[in-house]
Specification:
By secondary structure, this protein is an all-alpha fold. Helices cover 80% and strands 0% of the residues. The protein has one domain.
């Protein structure tokens, strides 16, 4: 991420990946989410993006972290965010 702040080409790639992640999240979540307004959907997607960034940082900061447990925690969080 810090490289994206210095390099416009890297920033463009990061922006495209972020946009694609959000599109996939929207397509994946809408069928499972309770009836939500557009704003609520966007808020939940933003929360999922923040949690995924945090999970990535956690895995980077602690190489001994158990990936299965991190993914289970991520899954639980996403399930709570979408209301299922």
């Amino acid at each position: 991420m810090s490289e994206a702040g210095r390099n416009p080409k890297v920033a463009d790639v990061v922006m495209k990946i972020d946009r694609r992640f959000r599109e996939i999240a929207r397509q994946s979540l809408i069928p499972f989410a309770p009836p939500l307004s557009e704003e609520e959907i966007e808020d939940r997607i933003e929360a999922i993006v923040m949690v995924s960034h945090g999970m990535t940082s956690r895995m980077t900061a602690d190489r001994a972290a158990n990936p299965e447990r991190l993914i289970a925690a991520f899954r639980l969080t996403v399930q709570k965010l979408i209301g299922s």
